[in-house]
Design a protein that fits this description.
This protein is α+β, with helices and mostly antiparallel strands and 189 residues long. Helix content is 30%, strand content 33%. The protein has a single domain (22-186), classed as Cyclic Phosphodiesterase, Chain: A (Alpha-Beta Complex), CATH 3.90.1140. The protein contains five helices and ten strands; from the N terminus they run αβαββαβββαβαβββ. Bound molecules: adenosine-2'-monophosphate (2AM).
């Protein structure tokens, strides 16, 4: 129906994220595949592995320039992440990889939230209790013991030098979520 098609095209589901480089994505992919084999569930496809900084949800296409502008207003330094832990959230049956709290990442998220709030998007603030993570496996059995996930071997993952972040569109397709970068923003020392 043309009307429905028009409505669908009028918004985009958007989020800001860090994207791992090929080497780290390959390491995380290996862990995700092995963990899904061990616990069950659906591993994230390698090219879609990411760490969300701020989730915006459905946004009118006409507002995208304002979001790009907000991203450009973020002033934060590059930092390095070491992905060294796995976790399991029973409420959404999700296995994730994460890192120790790190000031550079906290500052980037705070700066981004401030820029979004100043641009009129305070909804990002609802991520107050947000744990930065990369989703590795979805739809694990609810009975998965969190302790066993935490003890699952991660191996030696490459360090993750973070020097830019992205605004990304998410589309749900038959084969899962497809992510398209819309804009990229450098982190400058
Ligand atoms: P998830 O991997 O933990 O599901 C694209 O969907 C990205 O936005 C994913 O990283 C997803 O996190 C995150 N996301 C989806 N809905 C969200 C919400 N309501 N709040 C915060 N992040 C969300």
């Amino acid at each position: 129906m043309p009307e429905a098609a028009g409505r669908a095209a009028a918004t985009q589901r958007l989020f800001f994220a860090l994207w791992p480089d090929i080497e780290l994505a390959a390491g995380l992919d290996a862990v995700a595949t092995a963990a899904a084999r061990r616990f069950g569930g659906r591993p994230t496809r390698r090219e879609t592995l990411h760490l969300t900084l701020a989730f915006l949800g459905d946004i009118a296409i006409s507002e995208v320039p304002a979001l790009i502008d907000a991203g450009r207003h973020v002033v934060a330094s590059p930092f390095e992440l070491n992905i060294d832990r796995l976790g399991f959230w029973r409420h959404n049956r999700l296995l994730w990889a994460g890192c120790a709290p790190i000031a550079g990442l906290d500052r980037l998220i705070a700066q981004l939230q401030a820029a979004l709030a100043a641009a009129g998007y305070p909804l990002a603030i609802r991520q107050h209790s947000f744990t930065p993570h990369l989703t590795l496996v979805r739809k694990l059995p609810a009975s998965t013991p969190p302790g066993e996930v935490g003890g699952f071997p991660l191996g030696q993952l490459a360090a993750w030098p973070c020097s830019h972040f992205r605004l990304v569109e998410s589309r749900l397709t038959a084969s899962g979520s497809e992510y398209t970068p819309i804009a990229e923003f450098p982190l400058a020392a």
